[in-house]
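Entry — protein

Goal — fold tokens:
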Amino acid sequence: MGPVLSRVLALIGRLFLKSTGEGAATEVFAAVSPKAVPLAGDYLADSNVMKPRADAEDAALAARLWSESVKIVQAL
């Protein structure tokens, strides 16, 4: 990898990638914070309630995923 590409990747990483602690923060918040109790079942991102993508709330897609998962587990 050349020096220019290394610099570009380093810049992109700082702009878009999270550290390990930043990546785990929402899960830790949801698991241990009393403030998260009323948020149970909500979609969280960066420790805040967010609206999920439309396909995340698609009941037909969820049923298909469940059906396919059952087939995979039964085949094990």
User: Anything to note?
Assistant: The mean pLDDT is 89.
